[in-house]
Structure formats: structure tokens, C-alpha cells
Design goal:
The structure is a homodimer of 297-residue chains.
Chain A (H helix, E strand, L loop, with lengths): L6 H13 L2 H8 L3 H15 L14 H28 L4 E7 L1 H6 L1 H11 L3 E7 L2 H9 L5 E5 L7 E16 L10 E2 L8 E3 L12 H6 L2 E2 L3 H9 L4 E5 L10 E8 L3 E9 L6 H14 L8
Parallel strand pairs in A: 1-2, 1-3, 5-9, 6-7, 6-8
Antiparallel strand pairs in A: 3-10, 4-8, 4-9, 4-10
Helix pairs in contact in A: 1-2, 1-3, 1-4, 2-3
Chain A binds a DNA duplex (30 and 30 nucleotides) through helix 3.
DNA sequence: CCTGTCGGTAAGAAACCCTGATCGATTCAT
DNA sequence: ATGAATCGATCAGGGTTTCTTACCGACAGG
């Protein structure tokens, strides 16, 4: 029912009008004159009405004059779309939705995102933060394309690229009896008031696991946790990156027996592919946080 | 530089998404499945980025999801244009600019335009009126597509289709000495106070030409002319159609010696072709005002 | 394990679009 | 006038695009 208008013949019509003839148009279109003639005639009989007068010169019919601005409009919209998609593909435009665990979001991302938007000034980034499970769920559900987190359980539908290892240590106030140590073994912590937090599960399955059953509190909120530590109510364990260095009275002492680490990495969907902007972000993150390592599956 | 997006592959993408698969889409597009697959792949490599995930099912990539509404938008605009142009061609939409001499405009056009818009309810008409020279100039200059007028001088660049002959007669007040006659010869008018008007040139070149030199007035405005006639100041000659029948005191007496007629017809540009709407009007006018005559060159 | 459905691939056929040569008409200069 | 130049139209042909037919491998459900 509806005739399919192809873009190119419409361009020919515009060219004929503003070049003032079929020959001149053909020249500027890098086509031969018959190509232009035939394309126009094809278009005319598809519309069922001539666009140019038959006699001699290239003059628009009234119908042609009616069509002209509309052709121009459709071509403009086509070109706008084409340009826009190309910009997306070439990472000169676009948007990345991502998520990270709080320690990464607050300690690594500010610098990283600053560098990123310096490298890709046209791209936009949205960052959410939440615990590892939250990040995993956002990535798995497609609500964000990338997550930076530690991986608890294996998931075939998600792809995890390790970026860095983050050692767990003990955090206490500077006047605590352990505060002067360079390193600790788990036995030294026995009998201490241990405050559990969201990262304490890292100790599960290690020699230090017995400590967890002794812990009196379980505080997931970081502000509350630091408040309790500063108040000298107890001690806790945290990965190095999660240790809030802005509190002068808190000390971080590495745990060496057992050595416990979390592995931070980039999480993405295993089946869904990435938008061009997210591809740029993925490569940028890997390059930034894993210096001297090539990307690989 | 810019890739040319053809409309059809975009349609394929939409169909794949809302049919939920390549096979189903191919069915509803009346194509085979490989045709759809290949068209999509062609589009993908033209964009430089896949639209659908590779593995198994037909799932959009994030880039594909980004493209989808934009494809839909471009297709919508294409179809809107296509539909609109088709409506123009099929005379289901459009606009006719035309002009007519005052007698035609006031006596024939109201009825004719009423019938026309009843026949073509979607079309719109603009009508200007003015003397024959004015009408001719509008048509020649392309400001209107059609004129209904009498033709003074031949003009190769204009096409004139005769519609009706309009006999000239004498107009006088009902108490005038000639008012009772059924017909008149020019000699009977000698010695009368003759008022010239815009149509008096019709008498030039006829036996009645001597009357013109006797005329005391030359009044082009119709209101003024009728006022003078009603006041009994003189008589005039007018074509039948230009005789203002709404004035009860005025009489029209046919001039039979010589028989003078003007030929009213449809005027259009000889080189410029007509818009579809104007074509409809042209045919309608010819059919309405020249009953029982087929259209000719 | 077989079977139906999915999408991808290969080869040939049809349609499409372009080129090169040529034509008739018009215009312009001689 | 008449010949040259330029205009757009036309036609045969070949190269590309885009379809169809036939077949493949992957996967899911009975």
C-alpha cells in the first residue's frame, strides 16, 4: 500500500533543484546523469505523479515543490539519526550505568571517573553504590552494565574480571593495646570485643573464623561502625580499601595469620554485550586498575 | 562518512523485536528467515556494532535497545510522509489556489465550490477575483494554478479551455425607453448615454464599436456602475453573467445586431503542470460548466 | 535419543542501480 | 539560418545488492 521511499533518490531531487539541473546534480553526486534521471523517474512513478516538468529544463511541478521541503526534512532526520548512532558507536556520545561497592565508590571512583571523563568528555556516567550483593543484582538484572565489586558466589551468567586484591586487617582506636603492632595473627584477637560488619564474611572459611562467633555486634552501616570504633567500644576487621583513613584516631593493622584477601573486579553480564560507551568504560577501568595487564577472558 | 540507513532493514529489526524472533518476523514480513538475518547483519556491520546478541535467541544488545526507538521514529516519519504524499496524489488532501473574474466568482463559483468540496471534502480552495488581466497575470506568474476568465490576447505559455459563451446585452433601468424590448441592435442605442465599463472592450472590433466613442463615462467599479444605472444616469453593456440580477429595477436586453459574446474558459499555465488537487478542480470545473463535453488537449 | 525450533551459512536467481553510448529537443552563436 | 553546445531521455549491459532454496549446527523438551 505505502510506497517505500528510499533516501538516496530524495537526495537526488534536492541536488537537482539546488544544482539547477540533472547534469550538474549528477556531477556533485559523483553519479552519471542517466543514474539521476532514472532514479527520479522511478521515484515519480512510485508516487504516481511527476516531480519535474517534462519539457526541457529541470523545473519542479507544483507537486514537486510541495514534496521538496518534506524530502529535505526526512533526509535531515535520517542524517541526524545516522550521525547520532555513529557517535554512539565511536564513543563520542553515550551513557554508562554502573555500580560499585562503597569502598570502591568512595576511594577509587572519584579519581577514576575524573580521568575517564577527561579521556571521554562526551560520555556520561551514572554510579550507584551498595554492597556486593546489591551490585551483583543490578548487573545481573541489566539495570547497570558494569559493577566493581568482590565476587561471593560464582555465577555463570556473569563475567568477572579480577582487578586487585585487597587484604583484610584489624581496625582499632589508636589507644588500643594492639594499636602499635605492624601485623597481627588471629589468635591475638581472641577475647577482644569484635564488631562484625558487612565484610566480615571474608573471614568465613579461614582460620580466623572462630572470631566471628565471639563478635558482640553486627553493624552494616559504615558511619555507625566508625562511630563505635572511635568511641573505643570495640575493634573490627576491614579490607584495606574500606578502612576510613580520614579518622585520625583509627589504626589499620594487617592480618597476616591467616592472610585474608578479597578480590575486587569488574562484573558484567556474561550474555548481554556492552554498549559502546560501556565498552570504553570497561577498557578504561581495566587499564586503570590493573596496570601492566592485558585484557583477557 | 555517514552510513545510508535504508528503511527496510530498520523495519526488519522492529519486526524481529515485536515478533520475538527471526522466523516469526520473516513470516509477518512475507520474507524468508535468511533474508531477515542477512539484512540485519548488513545493517549491523554498516553501523559497526551488533544490534542483537550472538548467542541463540533474538535479544537486543544495549546498543540495539538504544537504536530501537530511534529506528521506530524514523520509520514513523517515513510512513507519515509516504502517506501524506499519497493522499495528495489521490486528491484526498491538498490545496487549490485559483482566481476568477468577478462575475464568475460571484455567480458561478459559490455553487461550483459547494459542489466541489462536497465531492472532495478533504481539499481546500482559495479563490481570488479580479478582472481578466489580473486573473491572467496570477495564472502566468504561478500565483494561482487555475483561472476562470475570458481570454483577451492569445498567449502560448497559457492553456485556455473554453467553457461557455456569454452574450453581451444592454442594461438599463426598468423605466427606460428601451426597457421593454426583447432584443436590440446597436443602432437603437445611438444617442443614448452609454456608460463604459471593464467589459466594454468586448464591443471593440464589432459593428457596435462606434458606440464606445460616444460613451460619457468609464466606470470600472461594479457597485458604482450599478448605482449609476439605478439612478437612471445612463445605460451600459454587460455580458449576461455580469448582469446583477439582484437589482429589481435593472433590465437586461440581449444585443442581437451585432451578436457579441465573450468566451469564458479555464486558464492554466501551459508549461507548469497542475498539482493533484488542481487537477481535480480542473476536471471538476470542465465537467460542471461544460456538460456533455469530454476533456481535450 | 530423537525431534522441532532456533539462527547462521552457501549458492544461485531476481531485482536493483549504475555506466556508457546515443538520441531528440532546445539554445546560442555565428 | 545553421552548426555547436547543452539539456534530459532512453536503452543495453554489467556489477552489486537482496532475495530464495537448501542445508548446517546448537539447543530444548518429550
Amino acid at each position: 500500500m505505502l510506497p517505500e521511499l528510499k533516501i538516496q533518490p530524495l537526495r537526488y531531487v534536492l541536488a537537482i533543484v539546488d544544482a539547477g539541473g540533472f547534469h550538474a546534480a549528477a556531477r556533485q553526486l559523483h553519479r552519471t546523469q542517466p543514474a539521476v534521471s532514472m532514479a527520479v523517474r522511478e521515484l515519480e512513478q512510485r508516487l504516481g505523479e511527476p516531480l519535474f516538468e517534462k519539457g526541457g529544463k529541470a523545473t519542479l511541478t507544483p507537486f514537486g515543490a510541495y514534496c521538496l521541503p518534506r524530502f529535505r526534512e526526512l533526509i535531515t532526520q535520517h542524517d541526524r539519526l545516522s550521525r547520532e548512532l555513529l557517535a554512539q558507536v565511536h564513543q563520542q556520545a553515550g551513557h554508562v550505568d554502573m555500580a560499585a561497592v562503597p569502598s570502591v565508590a568512595s576511594r577509587l571512583m572519584p579519581r577514576l571517573l575524573g580521568d575517564f571523563i577527561h579521556r571521554y568528555p562526551e560520555l556520561r556516567v551514572s554510579l550507584q553504590d551498595g554492597n556486593a550483593e546489591f551490585v551483583r543484582r543490578l548487573v545481573a538484572g541489566g539495570e547497570v552494565e558494569l559493577g566493581i565489586t568482590s565476587l561471593w558466589q560464582q555465577d555463570d551468567s556473569l563475567a568477572f574480571t579480577p582487578l586487585m586484591r585487597d587484604a583484610v586487617g584489624v581496625v582499632c582506636r589508636d589507644d588500643h593495646s594492639l594499636a602499635g603492632r605492624d601485623s597481627l595473627s588471629w589468635e591475638a584477637l581472641q577475647g577482644q570485643v569484635l564488631i562484625r560488619n558487612g565484610t566480615s564474611r571474608l573471614l568465613e572459611g579461614t582460620d580466623a573464623e572462630p572470631l566471628l562467633v565471639e563478635s558482640a555486634f553486627d553493624i552494616s552501616n559504615m558511619i555507625s561502625l566508625t562511630a563505635m570504633l572511635v568511641a573505643g567500644i570495640g575493634i573490627t576487621t576491614l579490607p584495606r580499601l574500606a578502612f576510613p583513613e580520614e579518622y585520625e584516631r583509627l589504626r589499620f593493622i594487617p592480618l597476616v595469620d591467616p592472610q585474608v584477601e578479597r578480590e575486587l573486579g569488574l562484573l558484567r553480564s556474561g550474555q548481554r554485550s556492552l554498549s559502546p560507551a560501556a565498552q570504553a568504560m570497561e577498557a578504561f577501568v581495566i587499564e586503570s586498575l590493573r596496570p601492566g595487564a592485558a585484557a583477557g577472558p
